[in-house]
Amino acid sequence: MLRSMVRFHSGPHKYKLKNMNGKVIFIDVDGPLAWGTWDEGKVKIMKGTSHEFTIPYPWVKEDCDALREIIKQTDARLVVSSDWRKHYVIADLAMIFEYYGIGRWNLLDTTTHFNPKKKMSSSGEWDRACEIEIWVKSFKPTNWISIDDMQLNYGYKSLGIPQFHHVQVSGDWGNGGKLRDKIDECVKKLNR
Questions:
Q1: CATH architecture of 21-36+60-88+112-190
Q2: What span, in angstroms and rounded, lies between the C-alpha atoms of 126 and 71?
C-alpha cells in the first residue's frame, strides 16, 4: 500500500510541472551517498513488509545526514541523476531515501535515460550533464545544483551552464571531499 501511494504522489510531478517554483538538487548516489561500502553486504528496504526489496550495499549515514541538512536549510527537492534510476523505479528510490532518513517526499523526479546529444564516444559525464540540462530546460527550477563525484563541470562548460551549479565530491576517487564537508557550499549555491 505504501509504495503504491508513493507512486501515486511521485509519478504525476513530471506531467504537472511546467515551471517549477523551487530549488532542485540533482543527486548522484555512488560517490556522494555511497562510497567504500561495496563489500559491506546487501541492505533490505521495507524489511518485513510485502514490498521488501534489496539494495546492493549500504549508504553512508554521515553523508545522508548532510543531504538531509542541505534540504532542510534550502527547501530544495531531489532529482535522482544517478545510475540507480536505471535499476529502481521512483517509488523504490523514495523508500531508499526514506530508509536513510532523507525523507521520501523530498524526492521529486529522476532525470531522463535519454540523451539526444549522445555520440558513440560519449562519456558518462557528458551524458549526465546533458540529462540534467534537459530536465532544467524542461522544468525551469528557480535554482539548482548537482552533487556528483563525476566531473560534470566540463560538460556544463561545453553546454554553457555556469560552473557554480556543480558540487564535486570525492566518493572513492579522492577528488573534492565528502558531502558532509560540503554542506555550506551547497547551501550557499542554492540560496544565491
A1: 3-Layer(aba) Sandwich (3.40)
A2: 26
